[in-house]
Amino acid sequence: MYSPVLVALVSTYISILLLNSFAVKLGLVDRPCTRKLHKGEVPLVGGMSVFFGVVTSLILCSDLNQVVILFVISAGIIVFIGVLDDKYDLSVRSRLIGQFLVGSILIFALGDYITNLGDLFSLGQINIKQFGVVFTLIAILAAINAYNMIDGIDGLLGALAIVSFTGIAVLGYENMHFSSYISIIFIASLLPFFLANLGVYPFKKLKIFMGDAGSMLIGLAIIWALVYSSQKTSLGEPIVRPVFALYVVAIPLMDMVAIMFRRISKGQSPFKPDRDHIHHIFMKAGFSSRQALAFITFSALFILSIGIYGEVTQMKELYLLIIIASLFLLYAFVIKRAWTVIKFFKLIQKGVI
């Protein structure tokens, strides 16, 4: 029996080495522009590398049941769509249609989707079975695009993905729930990418980006794992309450919602790219990309820790909802007053405050 973690690590590492050499020939590179300040052409092979690492580990080390097989197929399709987007810059409509189809495959082929939102208001369980399919499709689209939008500086997507998968893995580790198992495999596959994305040893000369293929894969995998960990499905009983999902995806979801509302308020498309994300605000305030990465990652860990504490102690779901809603409002307040926040940080750096 091979170690799934070791297989995922080694497979991803080898995939990075192999795909990196073909990226330029295939045109799978990210070029600098007004929104992208990196130097030179950077291969967009992180997503494919992580995908190959995860799939190799699942094939060699897992029971290939229907859930695993359909996830691999769906993940493969979303990665393919992402690769096309990385190379040809697909329209928003094309991406959303592809994401919708992938979500539909998972839901209708397996029959597993969100049917219970938990006891959010201390008035009893909120069952949405008749609206569950639509709700789950919206959740899938939201997760995929949230992780896609947050991918703006080196290391950020990898770090936040590892934080999210860690939250799922920790609470399901004791009985090795399948959602925990798949999360551990993803963490192992993400580690080589994370090092390569930061351009540190042993990837100092092999810097790569995740690309849309990777960010969409991450979003799909996280929401898929959350469905199986928070709902009664074909794989068994839930291991966490549904409200915990908000703590797992907190930073990417907060950033996406706040940015979309800000764009809509300006009369712009909610999908129009800009430089108003939280990591951009930190950098405009004078912080380095590594400092922004550290602060945002620790913030995500802090929020996740609250969620884990709430699950372990069985804190009332109403209280957990109030806490995360308050954090969402605080985040929206900061984003809306971005320039005030930037000026505040610059005054601190100058020693005025």
Write the layout of secondary structure elements.
Blueprint: H1 4-26, E1 29-30, E2 42-43, H2 46-61, H3 66-88, H4 92-110, H5 132-149, H6 156-172, H7 178-198, H8 211-230, H9 244-248, H10 250-265, H11 278-284, H12 289-312, H13 317-336, H14 338-349
Antiparallel strand pairs: 1-2
Helix pairs in contact: 1-2, 1-7, 2-3, 2-7, 2-8, 3-4, 3-8, 4-5, 5-8, 5-10, 6-7, 6-8, 6-12, 7-8, 10-13, 11-12
Average pLDDT for all residues: 91
Radius of gyration over alpha carbons? 20 Å
Please give the number of β-strands: 2
The oligomeric state is single chain
In the predicted model, the low-confidence regions spanning at least 5 consecutive residues are none
In helices, the fraction of residues equals 55-70%
Strand content: under 5%
Query: Number of helical segments?
Result: 14
N/C terminus separation: 59 Å
Please tell me what the overall shape is: globular
Question: What class would the helix/strand composition place it in?
Answer: mainly alpha
Task: Encode the helix/strand succession as letters.
Answer: HEEHHHHHHHHHHHHH
Q: How many domains would you count in the coordinates?
A: 1
Strand order of the largest sheet: 1-2
Report the biggest beta sheet as strand number plus sense, adding barrel if it closes: 2 strands, antiparallel
